[in-house]
Q: What sequence folds into this?
């Protein structure tokens, strides 16, 4: 029999996620199932709702497959948020593999992801600092800067470094940058062209590529449980073959590659780049220590062993994505 | 079609109609005050951002939650006041009692839809409470907003059902 | 049946419900629900309805809608509509047709702090109609002027319809507001020209009023400073990027509220403002919910996407497609209101327009340009027979003027609307100039 899967996500068709990950993924399962699995992709929330509601849409079968950020639903996926702490990952490719393994060995599919069938997990390329007025070379440069923080954890981290974190939705960022409402933003390269940040800022302060990233964000690509269960064994096999550790790694690599392309756009404009040395980053890590502590105590309050989870994540990243 | 300028308001005479009228007006007043509170908070946040560089923590979330709750609370009042846009071009030739029946049909359809939405939002409240989802910065549980919104849809269903029964009862003059 | 066929059948079903006086919001909701079940079954629908209302109503940018309505309500309680008309009349009232022109000017001024056409028509009607009557203006000119002038409430930013367009088309509200400003001013000037021409041809239609002394003029001008202050803060703040549209609307609402209290608004006045805002908001947000369900159903059928790819592959000249869309809007506008038209058609027309080339505009400029065009054309529906909301509102205040007389009086104003639309189609720079400046 033929099965058409409704795939729902929140970005426009031109985005990396749609064009370089979801569409090729769908083509691949179509081919490997000899045309029996088909996707109907609905970009830009066409099936209604808001991005934080995507998880529930996968659970309730409004969509068969969704791509989203667990972090949008704050408080709901505390264990996976460990990857959003500062200085965890290095490359999206290798750390995505670590993230998949972290979810598997800690059996998160039986706790916080028990209502959905995760196909793969990934992270984005390293978050960097994109600044209007001047570069950041040391911690004291943060003082007095208003910076857009993308997640709950980076919000705390920027405050710890001495900046004033400003929480705002992504579409607001370009407006805020161009009007000086914020002095810069913390973003991965992949997002930079979409919000035109490379045209609005002059300076890009990047962490030492040999050190851990300033931050990243975790993503999940997940399926409705009943829909997955309803597939015949050979089609389940096709989905399984395009999920798991290998597929997660592949998606991470897609992000790394799009980062390189976006970075080139900025350098073609003549923007200035500087690298924040690893020794300096070590100091920032100390300043942000309480961000780790508060994460550990938060997840411990929710019935997890926070310390063990943090260690598990760090060990797995070190194993797959060593420095 | 309603006009957004206040016109004199008369409450229905029967007891059910009167209680629905005053209940919906109370909802509207509560929603309106939430809206005013949200704007005062925004103004305060802008002022504090300008003076100290720090906005009110989670100001965007408060606006989102507050206006969602307020707007839902307005719906029953809109129904009691009959503020709907409709196309009356093709039915102007009909006898008034026929038109009243069509209006009754429209209100009945709304009562059914609003009833389903109220029911589903209540289920949604329970789901979200179980999943312990909160807002990003302030950690406000999302189910609070759902819990404050679903009574508005239940009241909307009740007022629409009431309007519908009134319309079907209308006799030719 | 293919998705497109199902989509088309349910569209017909929707039109039948509309023709049967079922309110637009409910027609959309019922059609959306029935279509959704047909395409995807009950379970996904029941799941979707758990979160649909919160998802739609918690959109940050949408919260400006009730705020702009409340701001307009406060502004009219604070006597700002009266002050605007007084100032305009003191300046040009002594010319032939001058008081009618002053009413258009005051509508434009009120439109600059109010997001709704109906509110503008109602407010300015209350203020200006008695004066036009006292001076023996031709009844049809008086009512037609105010009905047409009322559309400036939406044409001049801030504007509720533009906010909805911005959300549907995923465009920046501040840029759309900037884009609307020059076309809005052209609209006001066009209406003033119509009045001048009308009074030149029929000198009795618009008798001159009294000439006011310089001292009186200065006093009248001073009275409008709060309007200016609110406009500068709200629109200037949005254009300048100092705050988001929602924050700007909050500032404007609180400012207008404080002013109304200073002018004598008490608790009962505040509650009346809240009730009328609640009523107008309820109407809009019920339509929004209905449109949301309907649009999800349409997305499930893939009809909009297929229509768009059919049109862009058909080789039809883009301008022909655009004019066809405009004609459809004019016909829909005969019986529907502007907001419902935007909600009903943008999900279908927007992908079509984005797939075509117009004057080599890039995607984001094209989206803004088309948004302003659509806004202009749907607003015409407010003054076209048989159903013209603004005409109804003004006529309900001027009981002795037959509806048909007002609609006859509207014709020259409609001609100026048509001329303006043609102008904006062929000179996109009129729309995009300010957008490029603020960038
Ligand atoms: Na306006
Ligand atoms: Na009309």
A:
């Amino acid at each position: 029999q033929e099965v058409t899967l409704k795939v729902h996500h929140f970005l426009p068709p031109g985005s990396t996620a749609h064009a370089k990950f979801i569409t090729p993924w769908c083509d691949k399962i179509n081919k490997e199932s000899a045309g029996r699995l088909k996707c109907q992709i609905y970009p830009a929330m066409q099936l209604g709702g808001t991005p934080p509601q995507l998880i529930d849409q996968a659970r309730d079968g409004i969509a068969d497959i969704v791509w989203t950020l667990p972090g949008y639903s704050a408080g709901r996926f505390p264990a996976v948020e460990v990857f959003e702490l500062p200085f965890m990952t290095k490359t999206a490719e290798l750390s995505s593999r670590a993230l998949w393994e972290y979810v598997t060995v800690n059996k998160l599919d039986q706790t916080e992801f028990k209502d959905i069938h995760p196909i793969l997990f990934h992270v984005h390329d390293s978050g960097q600092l994109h600044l209007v007025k001047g570069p950041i070379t040391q911690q004291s440069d943060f003082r007095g800067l208003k910076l857009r923080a993308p997640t709950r954890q980076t919000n705390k981290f920027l405050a710890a470094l001495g900046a004033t974190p400003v929480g705002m939705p992504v579409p607001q960022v370009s407006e805020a940058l161009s009007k000086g409402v914020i002095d810069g933003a913390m973003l991965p390269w992949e997002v930079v062209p979409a919000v035109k940040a490379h045209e609005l800022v002059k300076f890009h302060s990047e962490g030492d590529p040999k050190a851990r990233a300033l931050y990243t964000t975790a993503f999940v690509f997940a399926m409705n449980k009943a829909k997955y269960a309803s597939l015949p064994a050979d089609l389940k096999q096709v989905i399984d073959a395009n999920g798991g550790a290998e597929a997660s790694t592949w998606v991470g690599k897609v992000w790394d590659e799009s980062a390189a392309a976006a970075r080139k756009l900025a350098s073609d404009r003549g923007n200035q780049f500087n690298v924040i040395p690893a020794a300096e980053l070590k100091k920032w890590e100390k300043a942000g220590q309480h961000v780790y502590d508060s994460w550990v105590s938060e997840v411990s309050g929710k019935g997890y062993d926070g310390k063990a989870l943090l260690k598990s994540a760090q060990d797995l990243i070190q194993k797959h994505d060593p420095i | 079609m309603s006009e957004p300028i206040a016109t004199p308001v008369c409450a229905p005479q029967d007891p059910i109609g009167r209680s629905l009228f005053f209940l919906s007006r109370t909802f509207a007043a509560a929603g309106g005050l939430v809206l005013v509170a949200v704007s005062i908070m925004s103004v305060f946040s802008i002022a504090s951002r300008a003076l100290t560089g720090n906005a009110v923590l989670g100001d965007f979330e408060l606006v989102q939650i507050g206006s969602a709750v307020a707007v839902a609370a307005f719906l029953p009042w809109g129904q009691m006041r009959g503020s709907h846009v409709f196309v009356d071009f093709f039915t102007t030739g009909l006898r008034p009692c026929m038109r009243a029946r069509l209006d009754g049909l429209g209100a009945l359809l709304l009562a059914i839809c609003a009833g389903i939405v109220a029911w589903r939002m209540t289920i949604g409240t329970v789901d979200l409470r179980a999943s312990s989802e909160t807002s990003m910065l302030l950690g406000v549980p999302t189910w609070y907003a759902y819990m404050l919104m679903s009574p508005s849809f239940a009241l909307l269903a009740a007022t629409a059902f009431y309007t519908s029964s009134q319309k079907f009862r209308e006799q030719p003059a | 049946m293919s998705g497109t066929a199902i989509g088309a059948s349910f569209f017909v079903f929707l039109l039948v419900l509309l023709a049967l006086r079922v309110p637009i919001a409910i027609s959309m909701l019922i059609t959306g629900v029935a279509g959704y079940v047909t395409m995807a079954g009950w379970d996904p629908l029941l799941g979707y309805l758990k979160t649909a209302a919160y998802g739609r109503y918690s959109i940050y940018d949408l919260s400006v809608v009730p705020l702009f309505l409340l701001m307009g309500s406060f502004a009219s309680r604070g006597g700002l509509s009266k002050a605007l008309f007084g100032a305009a009349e003191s300046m040009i009232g002594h010319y032939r047709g001058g008081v009618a022109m002053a009413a258009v000017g005051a509508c434009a001024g009120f439109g600059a702090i109010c997001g709704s056409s109906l509110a503008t028509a109602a407010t300015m009607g209350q203020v200006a109609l008695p004066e036009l009557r006292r001076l023996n203006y031709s009844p049809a000119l008086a009512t037609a002027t105010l009905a047409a002038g009322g559309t400036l409430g939406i044409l001049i930013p801030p504007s509720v319809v533009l906010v909805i367009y911005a959300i549907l088309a995923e465009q920046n509200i501040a840029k759309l507001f900037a884009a609307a400003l020059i076309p809005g001013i052209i609209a006001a000037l066009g209406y003033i020209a119509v009045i001048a021409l009308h009074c030149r041809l029929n000198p009795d239609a618009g008798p001159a009023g009294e000439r006011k002394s310089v001292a009186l003029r200065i006093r009248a001008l001073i009275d409008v400073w709060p309007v200016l202050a609110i406009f500068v803060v709200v629109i200037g703040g949005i254009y300048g990027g100092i705050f988001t549209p929602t924050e700007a609307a909050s500032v404007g609402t609180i400012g207008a509220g404080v002013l109304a209290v200073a002018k004598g608004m008490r608790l009962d006045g505040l509650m009346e403002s809240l009730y009328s805002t609640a009523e107008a908001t309820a109407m809009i947000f019920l339509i929004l919910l209905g449109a949301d369900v309907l649009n999800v159903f349409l997305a499930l059928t893939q009809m909009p996407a297929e229509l768009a790819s059919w049109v862009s592959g058909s080789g039809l000249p883009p301008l022909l497609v655009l004019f066809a869309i405009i004609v459809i809007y004019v016909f829909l506008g005969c019986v529907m209101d502007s907001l419902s038209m935007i909600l009903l058609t943008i999900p279908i027309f927007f992908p079509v327009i984005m797939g075509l080339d117009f004057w080599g505009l890039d995607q984001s400029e094209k989206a803004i340009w088309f948004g302003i065009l659509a806004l202009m054309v749907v607003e015409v529906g407010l003054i076209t027979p048989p159903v013209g909301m603004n005409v109804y509102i003004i006529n309900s205040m001027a009981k002795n003027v037959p509806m048909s007389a007002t609609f006859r009086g509207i014709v020259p104003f409609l001609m100026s609307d048509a001329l303006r639309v043609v102008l904006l189609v062929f000179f996109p720079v009129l729309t995009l100039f300010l957008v490029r400046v603020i960038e």
About this structure: The mean pLDDT of chain A is 94. Chain A touches chain C through 26 residues (CB under 8 Å).
